[in-house]
Amino acid sequence: MGEILVIGHRNPDTDAICSAIGYADFKRRTGMADAVAARCGDINDRIDFVLRTFGVPAPRFVADVSPRVADVMRSNVVSVPPETPLMDALAIMDQRNIRVLPVLDPNRHCIGLLSVFKASKFFFPSQSRMSDSRRVVASVRSLARVLGGTMLCGFEPDAENDLVLMIGAMRPASFGARLPSYAPERLLVVVGDREEIQEAAIRARARCVVITGGYDVSPEIRRLAQQFEVSVVLCPHDTTTTAMLCRASVSVGHLLRSDYLTFREDELLVDAQRLAAASQFQAFPVVDDSERVVGMLSKSDFLRHVGRRLILVDHNELSQAVTGAADLEILEIIDHHRLGSFTTQQPILFRNEPVGSTSTIVAEQFLLNRVELTPAIAGCLLAGLVSDTLNLTSPTTTARDADVLAVLEKVSGVNAREFVEKLFSSGSVLVSKPAAEAITTDCKEYAEGHARFSVAQIEELGFDTFWKRKDEVARALDAHCQSHGYLFSALLVTDVVQQTSLLLVAGDPRFRSRIVHPEAQPGIFQMDGVVSRKKQLLPYLTQCLRSLGNGNSHGNGLPLPNATVPIPPGAT
User: Fold this and answer.
1) Domains of the chain and CATH, by start
2) What is the pTM for the complete model shown?
3) CB within 8 A of 149, min separation 6: which ones?
4) Type and span of the H or E element at 406
5) Mean pLDDT, the chain, integer
């Protein structure tokens, strides 16, 4: 059926990465052998710290899961070289039940396509080309092999000849009268045991004489053939069958269509399908970057089921999912966020729990189903849990998170409090990344009605670094908002020690006017006690958005703080 990618949202945070790793391990241990942890964004320093700490490899990077040509093509390519006799090629096509056969050179580059239609036109030419029905293009050796015969004597047996087929089924006088009509070096005579006809053809220096019916020839005919350097082939078949097989000895290189259409193996399936539908061809070679044929694609292959499937963790909105997710079968969703707009073709397992992290839900699956939880996976899930709940201090935290964390500490042998200190000191995106990357490291896109917007979060140990870079961060946020056509883009910068945040908002000034929290500086709002994007900030922003639509003078939501955020000297 193909692999199953267990994958978090774009710009994944620690919980998205760790829950993908954990749930993929859970699915493999419960029978889903093809489950693979994946990610559709870069890992940051903190995630890298988690992976190094517990000795777990990073999930596979997959930027786009959109169905590709390689997902439905036939990779076991049946092909022939150009010198293959047509009879052999047709036998292969009949055995494999294929209508189009690629003809490849030794480097697997496509020379052309042989089709049943093209072969039928060769055997049954139009009335205006009836002379072609007697044309045989082959070497003497190829003729002998196709006929299943014996080359009694052969002169230049491997040289390809463009021959005219003549059946010696007439009186010697009539045959002798017709011989001068053809150039002897192009003459292929098919005859039974009529020795007079055999002798006449040899004395006329025909290129080749085929003796049918399994008959042998006399010593005199053998001597004459050697004397006049005429190739002679003994054939076991009757004359009618022999004549047909002579035509089928032509090499496929003479019957190819060279104006074929190819596709790249990594080409989007939807693009290939559009081109294929408009094409007269029924099958298409699939090539790699070196133009080597790696597969064949027929029009019926577009109906094949794409084997790759998805399990989404830590999100349930397609706007946040890996590119192409809407085109694949989604088997499960494991999440702890608000419900977004989502439809599926069939019922799926959708587990959405009001807890502090997706890692909590994943860990519970191990515990409830009594599946072995290794120290490494327990450590990863612990990291995802404490990261998303700020070590159980976030307002999203539940008693279930605390209970699960206690178990994870025991299994992993890790003290959560000590680990959190190391985790949040392991890397600051405002120190390690350019502003444009820092604001998208943990950024999610949302839709509310017809409005699209983004909300990002950066977690820091204090605001010192932010104040030093606030201007370039604000410019980057504004550019991000404009480039994506969002109504607004918000950035929540959270001090995980003091449990407070600053909010930057770029975009429509009418929306910014709905935010009634005090400004620490122009455009930078003070959000005391706000640390959760999911449970605190997002509901507030959506209510501000709704108030913009109904004309209210202010947004409702979080209580207004009274304190101010201290601004370090020189930050103004």
Assistant:
1) 4-67+307-424 (3.90.1640.10), 431-550 (3.10.310.20)
2) 0.67
3) 143, 210, 233, 234, 235, 236
4) helix 399-412
5) 90
